[in-house]
Amino acid sequence: MLEKTMKTSSTMFQDRHHNHSSGKKERCLSLTLGKGVPFVLTSLLMASIFSLFFLYNPNPLTLTPHQGHDMFENPSDPKQEEHPITTTKVSPSKPQKEQKTCDLSKGNWVPVLRGSSTYYTNSSCTTIPDSKNCFKQGRVDTDFLNWKWKPEQCDLPRFDPRTFLHMVRGKKMAFIGDSVARNHVDSLLCLLSQDEIPKDIHKDSEDRFRKWYFPIHDFTLTMVWSRFLIVGEERMVNGTVGTSIFDMQLDKVDNDWANELPNLDYAIISAGHWFFRVMHLHEAGKQVGCVYCNQPNITSYNPDITIRKAFRTAFKHINACKECGRKKMVTVLRTFAPAHFENGDWNTGGYCNRTSPVSESEVDFGRFDWEVRGIQMEEFERARSEGIIMGKLGLHNRFEVVDVARAMLMRPDGHPGEHWGNKWMRGYNDCTHWCLPGPIDVWSELLLAVLKRVNEF
Question: How far apart, in whole angstroms, are the C-alpha atoms of residue 122 and residue 118?
């Protein structure tokens, strides 16, 4: 049965910092002068020994603070001092106190010095696709680069490619999703290439299934194209393809990524932009409804139903993957990144020509982009709870989230717009994908924060 509504929920991660300190105990020696000279000499000798002990042993009675799990800082990170975290010292005999929670998804874009927010240029990173190389395609304004995401209650450290590659050494990571997921992969490649240039080891005929290998770190990065996460086949009408009419199998995952899943250590899941089309919905081999088709005797649904069922089916498949559980695979949901078409859609003259971020007060949180994010978070919470249950059976399915929706709702300035170089679609604007370099680079900063948190466990 399809569900029309579900209660919206969201999640935030709690971070604890534990410090243990011990107080120094002082002892006083009481001497009685009447005990005689031998006792006085012995006392002087003891005093000399203690003096040498304190002189050559730094902090002799102080325990080194123990760093607990921390999603913001890595003790091995050479840039750690740039973003100090205040911790609360507690007595080891008392319960450890929980530090104030920091939700990295809540914050604002703050201006920074020119060039201090970027990691690469459109010419220094040679793997940027022409369609995302906005400066190469004629964009001249640069203010959109001079902003940094600042969470409300903490700092988000800059991306460190060496730290990232160290954490994923010997691992396999796949981004599973549509062209916006590929957009993230291209951004991550630019960031990681500052430390190691990967080998391009696989490319299919449509450039949708890609693999890169970082030999120094034995790390494999994969892009698996999947528009819906579930099976969605485009209908042919009068022998013509490209109809944008799809038959959706709500209870069947897309095998293109499902077959890759058991090989992975990290699966980065995302989807959303393809669901706003005419869709015939099927479940258990029967048609159960339709989206945007308005056909008689067929129940009509809004696109949110398809989105919900797609993520629920995908997450259930992951939780049921025994090999994934044995490998302790980590599934990361990347929440919906909005498009910013103004005065029309992509095919009706819509454009996005802003040059600076907007404030949170200017964001319409009633729009469908935020609703999509809410659906994703609800299904994420459901999957994480099921994963905990599976963990009790010995299958350790861990779910994390890189929640970019709020931050990207404030960045209508980050899209290619007319600067995407598609000579076959002149006059159309790309307000869905993101310029490289650009605000999308923050997604990898958030992903690195999640990896740090996971590695501490």
Answer: 11
Domain ranges of the chain: 126-456
Mean pLDDT of 218-233: 98
Give catalytic status of residue 48 as yes or no. no
As beta bridge partners, residue 263 has none
Q: Which of 105, 226, 433, 441 is catalytic?
A: 433
Q: Mean pLDDT: which of 82-91, 117-126, 208-217, 319-328 is highest? A: 208-217
3-state secondary structure of 320: helix
pLDDT > 80? residue 171: yes
pLDDT greater at residue 132 or residue 7: 132
Residue 186: partners with Cβ closer than 8 Å, 6 or more residues away: 127, 128, 129, 132, 436
Burial string for 296-321 (b: 16+ CB within 10 Å, else e) reads eeeeebebbbbbbbbbbbbbbbbbeb
Pairing of strands 245-253, 230-234: antiparallel
Contacts for 314 with CB less than 8 Å, ≥ 6 apart: 229, 230, 253, 269
- Segment (H or E) for 329: none
- 143 neighbors 109 (Cβ within 8 angstroms): no
* Distance of alpha carbon 28 from alpha carbon 17, whole angstroms: 36
- DSSP letter at 273 equals G
Strand partners, 214: 219
CA dihedral 451, 331, 401, 398 (to 10 degrees): -80
176: β partners: 224, 269
Residue 288 has pLDDT above 70, yes or no: yes
Contacts for 206 with CB less than 8 Å, ≥ 6 apart: 225
Determine which one of 179, 251, 282, 356 is catalytic: 179
Q: Is 270 a catalytic residue?
A: no
Chain-wide mean pLDDT for the chain?
82
Of 103, 304, 430, 441, the catalytic one is 430
**pTM assigned to the model:** 0.78
Is residue 133 a contact partner of residue 122, using CB atoms and an 8 Å limit? yes
Structure tokens at 126: 């040679």
Query: Residue 232 region, left (φ>0) first, then alpha (ψ -120 to 50), else beta?
Result: beta
Q: Determine whether 195 is an active site residue.
A: no
DSSP of 360-414: GGG--TTSHHHHHHHHHHHHHHHHHHHHHHHHTTT---EEEEE--HHHHHT-TTS
Classify domain 126-456 by CATH number: 3.40.50.1110
Whether residue 404 has pLDDT greater than 50: yes
pLDDT at 113 (0 to 100): 87
